[in-house]
């Protein structure tokens, strides 16, 4: 019996019914206590704190691994070293909060109380601590904030980046009928005076159009129907008009008195081209001869230039009067010097690059030594020449017969009129010869092209018996006002010097 009593005493001692006060704390108790304390520090009160946060004691790097980052616990983001640990706690709370049901009745009051608790506990609004903002309006800058990079990243166009492009109408400003107009490529049947009067030859008659008023006047008509007009040319002053005819003669007319002053006879074939240089009138005929006429004297024929073997269909004096350019049906371009007493009549330059008749000739107004020439159907090229050096500066294949050329000083452009096969007018940027615009409307080949005295409008005459006026070179009013101001200032300076 004593033996059984001893064993009962031993069992009663080993039951451990009483708590052990000096034993260490269990692991689950340690984790629960750490979770509760951290939740109270980072979250608003009244909420459950059974979610483990990314700021736990677990190390972010696994021992023994080189530069390998361990992901944070549930509810956290990937490891970013520069991120604030307090904001990570807030972000974890927001992610867990999204899964909870939303009470629509208490949403407004809850958000206000949440903001108040957040400001008191964290020192900042919890909404401003979001790591990613995927929706809604962007946050406004604080009051009084100034962005120093505003000028650098401004979307407004600066004056240097604004590129003005002028509007070029593709339709003519005016269309006039030209019945009985001769459809002959080699003739020059239109010219525009410095007094804004347009002269047009219709078979054996010459009509005058006052471009300012719109009045049309019949100037003259040849007596015979078999004789037709081949060429027209105004004097520099715009008061006298030279008319070349198919009966080998040249008539001089006083336009404003509508009176014929004299008739010049020296050629043996029709006069297809005319050009003035002060008191000297130069004429080119089908025979290939070029004659100089001094209209002040009775014996007007003063010189003959021989070089072309076929009809001279292009004839232009340079603006400074130093050179005469001639083009012929023999595909040649000649440049002749101004005739002087006792001087020679040899040409300065002769170019044979064109493969077709050269009727289109134009001198550059702002570069007196530059000449442009255009070839006929077999050539179709625009060639730019330097008269001083004799070299061809540039050449362009237009793919169409060239009947006329002119330079537009307002925008420094070159204009070409074309026959077969395009029957159009093309504006080129000079000297690049890039296409600026194309003017279409004529139903037959364009025979001639002329520029208005203010250099804003071009007139074209074509085989479809129409005259079309295109306002393609109007100057900007602001630019025009500045030019007038400069001219007036310079005139005042000159007067004070005198």
Automatic annotation (TrEMBL):
One GO CC annotation: anaphase-promoting complex
Keyword terms of this UniProt record: Repeat, WD repeat
Region (Disordered): 27-82
GO biological process terms on file: anaphase-promoting complex-dependent catabolic process; positive regulation of anaphase-promoting complex-dependent catabolic process
Recorded superkingdom: Eukaryota
WD repeats mapped onto the chain: 222-263, 305-336, 376-395, 439-471
Amino acid composition bias (Low complexity), ranges on this chain: 32-63
Coiled-coil annotated spans: none
Ranges of residues in domain CDC20/Fizzy WD40: 176-470
Family matches, as SUPFAM superfamilies: WD40 repeat-like
GO MF term (any one): ubiquitin ligase activator activity
Pfam families named in the record: WD40_CDC20-Fz
Protein family per UniProt: Belongs to the WD repeat CDC20/Fizzy family.
Annotated PANTHER family: CELL DIVISION CYCLE 20 CDC20 FIZZY -RELATED, CELL DIVISION CYCLE PROTEIN 20 HOMOLOG
Protein's name in the database: CDC20/Fizzy WD40 domain-containing protein
Record organism: Perca flavescens (American yellow perch)
